[in-house]
Amino acid sequence: MDSIIVRGNGPLKGQIPIAGAKNACLTLMPATLLSEEPLTLTNAPRLSDIKTMAALLESLGAEVTSLQDGKVLAMSSHDLTSSHADYDIVRKMRASNLVLGPLLARTGHAEVSLPGGCAIGARPMDLHIFGLEKLGAEIELREGYLHAKAPRGLKGAEIDLAFASVGATENILMAATLARGSTVIRNAAREPEIVDLATCLRAMGAQIEGDGTSEIVVQGVDRLHGATHPVVADRIELGTYMLAPAFCGGEVECLGGRLDLVGAFVEKLHDAGIDVEETKAGLKVARRNGRVKAVDITTQPFPGFPTDLQAQMMALLSTAEGTSVLEEKIFENRFMHAPELMRMGAEIEVHGGTATVRGVDRLRGAPVMATDLRASVSLILAGLAAEGETVVSRVYHLDRGYERVEEKLGNVGAHIERVRET
Ligand code: EPZ
Fold this sequence. Notes:
UDP-n-acetylglucosamine1-carboxyvinyl-transferase, Chain; alpha/beta
């Protein structure tokens, strides 16, 4: 398993290109199952999760061709040969469950493993099941697999989600595009990835309105045709790299960054003393002067503060002037980065879903361990601000969601290198 070594850094300077969004691509790829015609995605990120999703789609009979060094994914699901999404793939990547809705809509049956828990929480699928059953699917849990069928096809329905689940909204939205009649999804997730999926589905001929709001209306159609769609910029990668100059000073321009993708996050950066400026090429970020200020954070569904940026913010606030309180409202166990930051000298107290962070003058480098995707990158950022050397192990988590992180940070002056374990 590779490790990444980071040394305490002087000011950063330069530009970081922001890739296509992992969490958009992971729902756009299963959309190919909805049509017999080819779907091509451009601006795709080069990540291990994308390779995992490609392998899953191929196991169902789809063809996925990666072009232009992985930035273009040419997919075709003309001849599907299976509707079985195996536990071995789903347990490694929960987003595999996003083949459930499309398979049901296209073939009338699906056998998808429940993902099982992951580091950050139980990750149940009750809302996915609720919505798809409303559309007429019959779903039964047997030996860890969801056995779903819709022998008479799917029928539009009114669906009120108890929680604005991103994945449930995506599964239901994709299924509804081929259901007979109209579907209304209330308390739908409003994330930019939902808007990107709806935009792609419309390009394929779907009739969808209201994406980006909490009420989405879909008029079912008989079939969808092929399309070519550019994956939206990754707002979580964007937010992560916007924080980098806040850790060790300097100024970084995130190419392709858009303010509308990171609204609530930018408000918190301003409160912490970090300037964000829109440029023609993206978003330029600089730390106003000296230490950042303590701020309180509560994670919420979009447009609130994203849970996927909570770990990175905690790392920054570990060196802030003052005490910050972070409330994690989306996942039940998403503070595993706290004990690792404490090994670097951070002063953090965790009680249930609340973490209190007392800022210290300086963190000290240490060997630390990544536990999930976003926790791992928060440790790398902390290493930029720490005195001495930080060695982050188990970086396979990192490679799931961050394209060539040592290259992108190294290009703006970070002392960072990857040590390949033989
Ligand atoms: C998506 O996960 C993202 N993953 C996550 O990003 C992100 O953290 C999350 O949305 C919230 O924004 C992808 O898009 C591939 P949810 P998802 O359904 O769809 C509970 C990353 O780091 N819930 O909105 O699984 C669930 O347990 C990953 O890139 C139910 O109770 O998120 C969680 O507590 C991590 N029942 C909360 O809702 C359900 O049926 C949010 O889940 C579904 C979810």
